[in-house]
Amino acid sequence: MPTFTTYDGTELAYDVQGEGEPLICLPGGPMRDAAYLGDLGGLGAHRSLIVLDLRGTGASAEPADPASYRCDRQVADVEALRLHLGLERIDLLGHSATGNLATLYAAAHPERVRSLVLVTPGVRAVGIDVTDEEWDEAVEVHADQPWYPAARAAVATIGPETPMERVMEIVSPFAYGRWDEAAQAHAAAVTDEAHWDAAAAYYADGAFEPEETRAALTALTAPVLILAGEYDGGPTPARAAELAELFAHAELVVQRGAGHFPWVDDAGAFVRPIAAFLDPEVRTVTVDGVRLAYRVWGEADAGPVVLVHGRGGNGADWARIAEELATDRRVYAVDLRGHGLSDWTGPYGFDVFRDELRGFMKELDLVGADVVAHSMGGAAAYLLAMDEPGLIGRLVLEEAPVFFPLDPPRGHAARPEGPLGLDWDVVLATDAQLNEPDPAWREGLAAITAPTLILAGGQNSHLAQERLSWMADRLPESHLLTVETGHEIHTSRPEEFLAALREFGI
What we know:
- The protein is of the alpha/beta class.
- 34% of the residues lie in helices and 18% in strands.
- The strands form 2 sheets. An 8-stranded mixed β-sheet has the order 1-2-4-3-5-6-7-8, sandwiched between helices. An 8-stranded mixed β-sheet has the order 9-10-12-11-13-14-15-16, sandwiched between helices.
- The N and C termini lie far apart (53 Å).
- The mean pLDDT is 97.
């Protein structure tokens, strides 16, 4: 592991995982070996994780002065790491107890923070109290679990003389969204990973000056993401929201069904909002309680175009098309729910995506925008044009299915192994609707008033091309163009795709 020497001569170690822009990650515990973070649920696929072993933990050396374990005194270690890495400004992530450390660093060095991510963070540094009563109420969510009575009885045995190691063992079942084998293995590792004496010193008297810290945080202009677990007892989502109010530019995400270690509960749900937050090309908007990621190209005052991906895709799939359109248009490419960096939150269906696209356009004041949509996204777009004439200006449908019942119907689709770019429930829900679609989705096509270009992929497409011709015949103002390439026209024949859009007036 690479090492560096901090302000008092102590040699500290750090691990590097993944590729991309560096994200400095501080492990909590307090004073726990950084191994418990793992790769933070796969976050290393999006950023290069610089995972610090705090002094006296993991591969880092013990300091000469044990008092230097105190939280505020470790701010200098983070600054020493920044200098060692040669970074002008840093993206910084702190979990649990090091939510305090990361907050203190941001207060002391606001000009050095490019972005701040606080995961189920400690809040003592800013003087927010998490009471025993709040914790008791929060853990009641587990009351129907078979392990709960014994675990709750064990909590009642905790007293002032109970060793911290034993306290951690007792409360561990309540620290996860599910007390399953993965959670139990993760919790068991604390015995070998924690430095208990250092943990006691971490919160020693004098570590925090909340009023001074709150005042100093007013100088922080960097964006802040606070990720709380829905079932976490410390901090609860309410206390995390209170913390968010102390920052000028803070976003709060509450991960559903998660506890204090949210990447263990649901790695994807943990990674997606953080990856979106850290990507300067990605923005987010909330529609009907669902966080949607989207990308933007072009000048703000140019005419808007909304790009909608197909099943299994995401907004990034449109990059080549978007860059060309952005020469004279303002281009928006959304990740629909269950896809890409948006929330993977059901229910799913063509009608759900229709309503979501409606909400997205209205939330961003895109009424009257042109819409270019592929496959599943195309079906959602024409259902919207049918349902709310006038919302869409010009409409381009690339290989969008027409809602005739499939014959033969699709059977149950087994989920492939490995990571996917979509929630598999999207496939199950939309297949069911394709098998038995609402007849109104086919019969109401004449209600579409938007000028419509239908792009067909020809004989190499899996869609019945005669159905696309049938649809074109029923739209009041439409044009059908076939590009002999298959279902993915915009990726396999981008120049012809763009030429068709330009000729159509987009």
